């Protein structure tokens, strides 16, 4: 049957990419259909229910600044919040939250159900409707045909998903959910480069069988950090403790003795796994000199006894998992609630995508999330938002938009993916961004909210809050710059006491704030009242302390922009540029970079080849 209603955008998959994609497209006013295997798994966290961390929280804040759901849902569901790298500079500070997985799902589902222009349908999609080289809709398992000029595919780990526990294998999209076999086979018939990746998860432990008294407690930070730029700790549920324990020589011995029964080491798993999140068997093999690894024992929620032992992801046979778990201090009597496993799945070479995440091969078909070779909820959510946005813009006949590398980590990730592709699951790190000082998690709104508002992604409430914050920020900056403290006054004495240095002349409060030993709340109320908004106070402090570095980075960006933004026509003939090696020509043809800047980041590109290209483009403009 042809479904009677037509849609502007269809999103396949209700994971982290799919929910952000559907919400973004619907926020822009597009009639959006989200089709997913099960309404009950909308926003499901397949692995650890934790959001954020280094590099990842930057993505979450950017999703938030563009009106997305992930950060707000985390604030509604987070049972422990911490700031990582809190002693380092603001560029690499990162917020991480352990979430209650049930509350998180509920927070996402609530937002989907309350979103106007958004319809949800529970069914597997088995096929795409493709005419010539453009997509026109999808066909579900029961033969329903839904039509739309733009389709966003976000099938996660489900495409031809194969679960491994020891040398046993079964089909599955993740434990307990079916794989998408028919759709995977159909996609393999299209002109897309497909390969396999793998990821894994640890066995879950029943808290009632754990001896926490021998583990190290780890509480969240006080005051409680928040994930959303508009978040408040007052909305957080009850906070919980995590614990730390360690593997030991016995654990390592058990694993070494059983490597021949590991699907990873016996060659059964072909897909490459996440380098930065290796299985315990991989860690023991790779770091053979280490006799212990940390295990973070993290609760999965307020209403469950399940614990996530972060650090012992494994696909070893169950009897080995059992012995491994019981060899760990505090787990001597542990009961495993769910076995650990690895999963292999199809992903598509992201070099087949435009920066909008539309496939180059099929007009109107967008890919987002794990199927583009990434790993992580945050990476998936960020791509989903950009794919949903651009699907909507395309349908409305408006120009595409995606952030550049100097605007957002989302820009860095997408540019990395479409330029370099990936041979292993791609995870975000702050080190991937060349303009780190500009791309802080604390200023994501200043980088993105105004553009998000123009694109129709940011609602009135967020826009109002942001505008008030910007007004207060400007006013507070002005107040601090024009308020002076004279030497030998009671205020000067107070400053001297805190800083341990004499004030020999008149200083503005803003100048005092530039000193590393002084903080906003030390000086803001020396004359006049301090600003009550914590985010404004934090921003004034960061902007003044790092003003010199930030200005230098801005100059660097401008210097690079002259050359970097030179456009390369999409039909550019690389064969006509003499002096380029055949290898580089073929790489350039493959990636088809939009600008010289993007061309410069193709692996193997040399400065000499780049200047050949620049000269050629200038001559033939
Ligand atoms: P998913 O969250 O997988 O969502 C896909 C959605 O699409 C699901 O709702 C599914 O039902 C639906 N779907 C799929 N096919 C169809 C279809 N044909 N029709 C209708 N609906 C469909 N990330 C980390 O950062 N670190 C880790 O250590 C880690 N370990 C993991 C271990 C395992 C075992 C798994 C399964 C995942 C792990 N992840 C890890 C990855 C993390 O879960 C994903 O990165 C994230 O969920 C990707 O989001 P997504 O939206 O792309 O896909």
TrEMBL record:
SMART domains xref list: GIDA_assoc_3
Keyword Cytoplasm: yes
Record: residues binding NAD(+): 273-287
Cofactor(s) the protein requires to work: FAD
Keywords: Cytoplasm, FAD, Flavoprotein, NAD, tRNA processing
Family listed: Belongs to the MnmG family.
Assembly and binders: Homodimer. Heterotetramer of two MnmE and two MnmG subunits.
Record NCBIfam families: mnmG_gidA (TIGR00136)
Name of this chain's protein: tRNA uridine 5-carboxymethylaminomethyl modification enzyme MnmG
Lineage of the species this protein comes from: Bacteria, Pseudomonadati, Pseudomonadota, Gammaproteobacteria, Cellvibrionales
């Amino acid at each position: 049957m042809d479904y009677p209603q037509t849609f502007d955008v269809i999103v396949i998959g209700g994971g982290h990419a799919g929910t952000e994609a559907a919400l973004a497209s619907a926020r822009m006013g597009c009639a959006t259909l989200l089709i997913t295997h099960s309404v009950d798994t909308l926003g499901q966290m397949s692995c650890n229910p934790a959001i954020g961390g280094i590099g990842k929280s930057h993505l979450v804040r950017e999703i938030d600044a563009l009106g997305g759901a992930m950060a707000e849902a985390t604030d509604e569901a987070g049972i422990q919040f911490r700031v990582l790298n809190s002693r380092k500079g603001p560029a690499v500070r990162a917020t991480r939250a352990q979430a209650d997985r049930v509350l998180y799902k509920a927070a996402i589902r609530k937002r989907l159900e309350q979103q106007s222009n958004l319809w949800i349908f529970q069914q597997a999609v088995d096929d795409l409707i493709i005419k010539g080289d453009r997509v026109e809709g999808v066909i579900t398992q029961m033969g329903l045909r839904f039509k739309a000029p733009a389709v966003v595919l976000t099938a996660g780990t489900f495409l031809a998903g194969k679960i491994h526990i020891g040398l046993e294998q079964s089909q599955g999209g993740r434990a307990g959910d079916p794989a998408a076999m028919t759709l995977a086979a159909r996609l393999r018939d299209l002109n897309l480069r497909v390969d396999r990746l793998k990821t894994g998860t640890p066995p879950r432990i029943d808290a009632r069988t754990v001896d926490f008294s021998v583990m190290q407690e780890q509480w969240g930070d006080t005051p409680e950090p928040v994930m959303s730029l508009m978040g408040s700790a007052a909305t957080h549920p009850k906070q919980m403790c995590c614990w730390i324990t360690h593997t030991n020589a016995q654990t390592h011995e058990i694993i070494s003795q059983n490597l021949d029964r590991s699907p990873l080491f016996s060659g059964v798993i072909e897909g490459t796994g996440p380098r930065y999140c290796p299985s315990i068997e991989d860690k023991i093999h790779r770091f053979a000199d280490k006799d212990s690894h940390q295990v973070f024992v993290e609760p999965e929620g307020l209403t469950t006894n399940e614990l996530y032992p972060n650090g012992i992801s494994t696909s070893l046979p169950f009897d080995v998992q059992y012995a491994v778990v019981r060899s760990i201090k505090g787990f001597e009597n542990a009961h495993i609630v769910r076995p650990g496993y690895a999963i292999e799945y199809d992903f598509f070479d992201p070099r087949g995508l435009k920066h909008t995440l539309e496939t180059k091969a099929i007009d109107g078909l967008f890919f987002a999330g794990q199927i583009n070779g990434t790993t992580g909820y945050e990476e998936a959510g960020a791509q989903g938002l950009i794919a949903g946005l651009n699907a909507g813009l395309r349908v409305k006949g408006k120009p595409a938009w995606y952030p550049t590398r100097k605007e957002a980590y989302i820009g860095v990730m997408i540019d990395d993916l479409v330029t370099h592709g990936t041979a292993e699951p791609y995870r975000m790190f702050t080190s991937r961004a060349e303009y780190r000082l500009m791309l802080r998690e604390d200023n994501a709104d200043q980088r993105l909210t105004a553009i998000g508002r123009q694109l129709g992604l940011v609602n009135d409430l967020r826009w109002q809050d942001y505008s008030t914050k910007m007004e207060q920020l400007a006013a507070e900056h002005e107040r601090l710059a024009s308020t002076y403290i004279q030497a030998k006054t009671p205020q000067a004495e107070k400053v001297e006491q805190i800083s341990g240095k004499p004030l020999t002349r008149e200083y503005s409060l803003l100048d005092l704030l530039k000193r590393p030993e002084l903080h906003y709340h030390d000086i803001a109320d020396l004359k006049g009242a301090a600003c009550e908004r914590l985010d404004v106070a934090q921003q004034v402090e960061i902007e003044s302390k790092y003003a010199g570095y930030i200005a230098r980075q801005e100059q660097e960006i401008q210097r690079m922009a002259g050359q970097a933004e030179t456009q390369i026509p999409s039909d550019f003939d690389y064969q006509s540029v003499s002096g380029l090696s055949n290898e580089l020509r073929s790489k350039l043809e493959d990636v088809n970079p939009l600008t010289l800047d993007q061309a410069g980041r193709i692996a193997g590109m040399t400065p000499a080849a780049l200047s050949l290209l620049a000269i050629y483009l200038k001559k033939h403009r």
